[in-house]
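Go through this:
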Amino acid sequence: MKYHFIIVFCFLNSFLYSQTKKSTDSIFYYNKLADANLNNKKYNQALFYTQKSIDFCQSNNKPENLANQTFKLGKIHYNQKNYEEALKNFHKSVSLFDKVAPTCTKVLALHYIGVTNTARGDYKTADVYYKKAKNLLDELKIVDHAEVLNYQKAMAFKANKNLPLAAEFFSQITQQPDNPSLIKTKADSYYQLGLIETQLKRNDSTMIYFDNALDYNAKSNNLIQKSKIIFAISQYYKKNKNFDLAYSYLDEHYQLENYILKLRNAKLDQNEFAKFKKNQSLNNTIKRENEEKIQLKTYRYSKLVSILAIALISILSLLSLALYKNNIIRNQNNLLLREKNKELILAKNKAEKASKARSEFLSTVSHELRTPLNAINGITHLLLEDNPKKTQLKYLESLKFSGNYLTTFINEILEINKIDSTKVEVENISFNLKELLFNIQSSLKELATANKNYFNLEMDETIPDNLIGDPTKLSQIILNLINNALKFTQNGNVNVIAKLYAEEEDTATVYFEIVDTGIGIPEDKLQTVFESFSQGSIEVNRKYGGTGLGLTIVKKLIELLGGEIKLKSEVGKGSTFTFKLNFKINKEPLEVVEETKPYNDKQLKHKSILLIEDNKINQMITRKMLENKAITCEIIDNGEDAVELLKVKRFDMILMDVHLPGINGTTATKLIREFDKTTPIIALTAISLDENRDMLLSFGMNDVITKPFVPDEFYSIIAKFFD
């Protein structure tokens, strides 16, 4: 029944259309209506007339026009930021163009697929279509439009709020040689760069770009473009509270707008007069034809009134019934959705609480274990320095190894927690990659020799000497991977390969590969080895030891640096780990940093140090370690008394525990710095998830010693403050 009425309704519509169809039914006519509505920002009407044009092309078998109009429909959706519909129409347009000879519009359709994906943040897909558009542009031997396409690409990055990439493409356009076809695009590019710099609050470069935009605008005398640039400059000065200049530029902007409006009105008046003269000559003829048509239409419409009335009543009845049923179904679905939403919110809250509790628990456990570990490692160090008996030496070495193992284990737990909680910051400093890898190789030669392995480093000489990145995290990644390779390989080969994968103007992509001929990893374990506390098998864990956290840290650090680790392995034949990382190229030579000389006991002798520490065991260990170097040590177990003592007595150095009863070490340091700016204060802390070196230094501390103490590091940090 429902379909019968639809057929009747469609028949009636077709009949009416056939009776009222005019000679205006053409692509040109619909385009004209669509463009007029676009100018008046009536987008729904513009979409309607563009669709009418598409329907006309289909019914009249005009494949190339159909492809063009489908592209236009996609562009309207794109300008309204309706990216899903835009992509749908752009892809359809490309498939239609495939059936006809390639044109410039096909280039634009491919390019706009890239632009739309860029605006959505899908850069990989975007790059594929940018390349297709560029290849077709080259094939058609069209060179004038390349930078205009780049401008659209840059605007898409800006729409996606990826300002650095947008600025990079705008800059590329501005660096092209001047020619008449590029003047407006270059002016627009400088204007966009000025807006981006304003958003990034880089005041020094903002006005340079706006001035360049005005210079290029002067060559084209584009008043609308100039008005935009002048208004942007006014807003810039307003934000910088230079209200005189802001008002001056705003006044110039309004003057330009008024002038443009006058020009438009003058042009409109001339056009209206021409249309009036033309229409006047046609009015009489059209009037006669219309009178005849009206009489014919009146007769035909009178016959259709009864049919339409019946059809409309039937359709309205069906619609009412459908709406009633849909309302019942919708209410039922809404109730079900509300229940599901409540369940999802509860599950989400539980998951967030569980994740937070896990992080806090691991952080607390790792932090609290450091204090007793400091006692174990410290007492072991003191006993080893006290000329133990040969029978005792073996036990003390075992105790030292166990303490160091536990310290490494806790550090790795804390490292994973920091990465997961996004509290790890990526550095960007200059370093020499070749020198870094050679130093790593030298530090691990002893381990390679112990397992009778051939340890080789292959370095690509074309890699730039000076790169900008995070050498600390890169060292951590490489050290973990090589350590694993050397540990799980005996009487075999371990190769470390670094190659220049790609190089652009100021960016280098380096490919890293660590290959071993060790025990390998079973195929069913290739994914789980990157999970926390996971190794190849229980037997591997028992035989080779390890925390099972190294590869987890490696994977997270590589992802943090913008790369992806890949693994190939076969049991009994070895493993291969590969990854690529991007680095900026530093054009300036690295400063040569002289290695600091190791401390000597004379630097420490007869110095006086105040130790502020509440734990009795740590007091005893630290005092003994200091006295072993002929340092005088005085101990106070709380911050309040320490502050009062330092007001009347001076020491060469203060060792300040961060966690104290009463006021903590950071508060005590701030109070001391109010009357003593010079005495070095070293923080003693078992750094937790919420602490970091920069935070502690911000309170006035000069350096940080982490518990449990590594003796050589402990003495070195103290000694560097005593010349």
Q: What stands out?
A: Residues 258 and 264 are 10 Å apart (CA to CA). The first helix runs from residue 2 to 20.
